[in-house]
Amino acid sequence: MAGGRPRLLSPDDEDFVVRTATTRPTKLSQPFTRWSIRKLLAYLRKVHGRVIRIGREALR
Question: Is the pTM value of this prediction over 0.85?
Fold first, then answer.
């Protein structure tokens, strides 16, 4: 291990973020056709059943 700060996202959470980002927002009942960083971040923070802790820069 190289040390440093522990990761905030598990591999499962990373996969969930990637799947969400590559899915059209309309398929997830969102009223827009493309994700912006802000919209994706807001959606990930309100998803029920998961706690996704990620910042805008990490998401970018």
Answer: no
